Amino acid sequence: MSSNPSQKRRLAVVTPRKASYKDLSVYHTRDYLDAILYSGNPGKTEGEAEPNAEFGLEDDCPYFLGLSEYVQMVAGATLTAVSALQQNLSEIAICWDGGRHHARKSQASGFCYVADCILAILALKRAPIPVASSSGGLPIPIQKPRIMYLDLDLHFSDAVSEAFYSPISSSSPQILTLSIHHTAPGFFPISERAKLPDVSSPDFDPLTLSIPLHPGASNATYAKIWPLVERVRDTFRPDFIVVQCGVDALAGDPCSTFNWSLGGDEGSLGGCIQKIVDQWAGKKLLLGGGGYNSPNAARAWAYLTSISTGNPISLETEIPDHVGFPLYGPSFTLDVPAGNMTDHNTEEYLTSVKQCFDNVIISLEQRMTASH
Ligand SMILES: [Zn+2]
Q1: Which residue in the list 102, 155, 181, 182 is annotated as catalytic?
Q2: In a domain? residue 285
Q3: Which residues are close to ligand 1, an ion, with C-beta < 5 A?
Q4: Residue 114 resides in a domain
Q5: Separation of 173 CA from ligand 1 center, angstroms?
Q6: Distance CA 30, CA 335 (A)
Q7: How far, in Å, from the CA of 226 to the mean position of ligand 1?
Q8: Which residues contact 173 (CB under 8 A, 6 or more apart)?
Q9: Burial grade of 201 (CB within 10 A; 0-12, 13-18, 19 or more)
Q10: Does residue 24 lie within any of the structural domains?
């Protein structure tokens, strides 16, 4: 989609290509790819592949018939969206099948078999971008692109955040990850990086950031933390923004942890995405993610698509008649309203998050300045 703030944009549907073995091996290990891709092992047919705990192919990531094709299509769709941005075909690209933020280099995890978010970031990182138009026949100066990964899923983006975590790096900062999520003892996924950053710790990396929220997080809470997200953006000045739009933080999800709503007040999921696509500089890649109330996930991604076109449809829109129509009761409308869960993110807690990020921003500024 071409970007024209607050104006309608032209939408084009692009047929995704399948990711090749080479595409996937940019991040995944050969051993893992051989376990999930029958094409990577010519001697093995798809039906012969075994569940394999070593590669995480068990529990919520079982081996299934068609896994090879599925992995190639998910990663291929995200990489097709990346190409559309890099080739200047659009300012905004969407792949709702992407956003598999728990998949690791050699391990499936949390319903994620392929690390399409990481592959997308690596592809964006690789291609230099022009700084400005040339004049007088001078070569066009180029710079390494900066990519901000923002994860709105209920769960911490463990695989993505840890893939780029580098507390002692002195190289030019190119990738910043910021995940807004719930974390608690025993709550998936377990990771040191899921906690509020401790700026005084030697492990602190100002490019690997987390904003953990307590149960019941509502629009009001997201509205209060959103200025912190924008301060991080202003300090990092990304050329590309990759947004993982998991919708399991919405009210009505079986995870029943947060109480976010799709539209309405300041701070809603729709409101946050609208700010990103209408007001943020840089090209945007919108990916999907978790979401276990399927009708609500469909509602959310349909609404976010309409926001991205610059022409948000009314939340009162009736669900059109189709084979899944009965699943959309009792409202049969587009909206995913908040429930009546108590928001446990107190003023005191949100103030502590702000104070933490005051220091995070100083540290991030120092890291950005040190690289010049
Ligand atoms: Zn999730």
Answers
A1: 102
A2: yes
A3: 153-155, 246, 248, 290
A4: no
A5: 27
A6: 44
A7: 20
A8: 146, 207, 236, 367, 368, 371
A9: exposed
A10: no
Number of compact structural domains in the chain: 1
The tokens for 43 are: 């001697």
Q: What is the pLDDT along the chain (372 residues), one digit of tens a residue?
A: 655 555 678 999 999 999 999 999 999 999 999 999 974 455 555 555 566 889 999 999 998 889 999 999 999 999 999 999 999 999 999 999 999 999 999 999 999 999 999 999 999 999 888 776 555 666 666 789 999 999 999 999 999 999 999 998 777 899 999 999 999 999 999 999 999 999 999 999 999 999 999 999 999 999 999 999 999 999 999 999 999 999 999 999 999 999 999 997 799 999 999 999 999 999 999 999 999 999 999 999 999 999 999 999 999 999 999 999 999 999 999 999 999 999 999 999 999 999 999 999 999 999 999 866
Q: Which residues pair with 286 in a beta bridge?
A: 94, 243
Domain at 260, CATH number: 3.40.800.20
Domain that holds residue 207: 143-370
Contacts with 320 (C-beta within 8 Å, 6 or more apart), sequence order: none
Whether 365 is covered by a domain: the verdict is: yes
Whole-number Å distance, alpha carbon 155 to ligand 1 midpoint, is 4
Told to judge if 102 belongs to the known catalytic residues of this protein, a careful annotator would answer yes
Q: Taking Cα atoms as reference points, which of 193, 149, 196, 156 lies closest to residue 173?
A: 149
Distance in Å, CA 110 to ligand 1 centroid: 8
